[in-house]
Amino acid sequence: MTKAKASSTLSQNKGIAETTCPITYVMNKIGGHWKCIILYYLISGPKRYSELKRSIPAITEKMLAEHLKQLKEDNLITKKVEQIMPPITIYSLTPSGEELGPVLMAMADWAIKDSEHFQNLRMQG
Amino acid sequence: MTKAKASSTLSQNKGIAETTCPITYVMNKIGGHWKCIILYYLISGPKRYSELKRSIPAITEKMLAEHLKQLKEDNLITKKVEQIMPPITIYSLTPSGEELGPVLMAMADWAIKDSEHFQNLRMQG
DNA sequence: CGGCATCCTAGCCGATACTG
DNA sequence: CAGTATCGGCTAGGATGCCG
Questions:
Q1: 3-class DSSP state of B20
Q2: Sequence-distant (≥ 6) Cβ neighbours of residue B40 within 8 angstroms
């Protein structure tokens, strides 16, 4: 993993674009399909692993665990483990993650408006 | 394209989740890595195909054309073609697309703040 | 309960060539 | 200028099973 492939320009371009385009920077952090959803469910407060899984039925264990790890590495969430048996793991938003909250809420808001548009269009059509 | 594959549960889940989770709805529309970037550049006003291409050096023709088509199908942008030779194509935001503007600006805003956080951390480290 | 390792497929995406 | 079509590699992501 120390050496990037030469045939792929995307990963390299992504790195370059990240320093010049703020949207690219954001997409590299929360661009994955599930990242935003996970963060969205964490806005309402810290959650344990199983709660997140129940909140997002469409996600697989692999995706959840993987994206949680990435979000942690990107300093958007923190992980707190109770070393008992069975273990309890709590995920919370970091300050950076908290600041993303309004953005996600704005996205959700837009979604609701936009789907209303569609329903209106359907009624007219 | 009329029949979905049976082996993949994701596309089906996406469809189901889309009706219950607003963030999923948004991600299905602008989740692609380039969609947000294209929309972001269209906020400042209508642009022609070649202008977009120049604005986003990292994107390939295929991705640009493909995502422009999807954005049009999702009613986020409109396409206006001057049927002359050589042709001129202008892409603009629809009202729905315009309403996404503030969200994208908020994302960009967060990105700038967040990258400052990192630089501060590095200085302390 | 929480999460990682393996295997495998679907779809994203780059490169190239062709059309109006 | 503004696309479309085809080929092919890479990787995201689903299914399953094992471990602390």
A1: helix
A2: A21, A23, B104, B108
Residue B93 CA to residue B89 CA, distance in Å, equals 14
Pick the residue of B20, B26, B77 with the most A CBs within 10 A to test the interface with A by mutation.
Answer: B26
Summarize pLDDT for A23-39 with one digit per residue, the tens: 988 998 998 889 999 99
CA nearest to nucleotide C3 C1': residue: A65
Nearest residue of chain B to residue A37 (CA atoms): B23
Closest partner CB to A115 (pick from B25, B27, B33): B25
Q: Which domains does chain B have, with CATH numbers?
A: 34-124 (1.10.10.10)
pTM: 0.85
Report pLDDT digits (tens) over B66-121.
999 999 999 999 999 998 888 999 999 999 999 999 999 999 999 999 887 666 66
CB contact under 8 A, A58 and B13: yes
Question: Which residues are CB-contacts of B89 (< 8 A; sequence separation ≥ 6)?
Answer: B48, B49, B79, B80, B81, B82
**Residue A117 contacts B, CB cutoff 8 Å:** yes
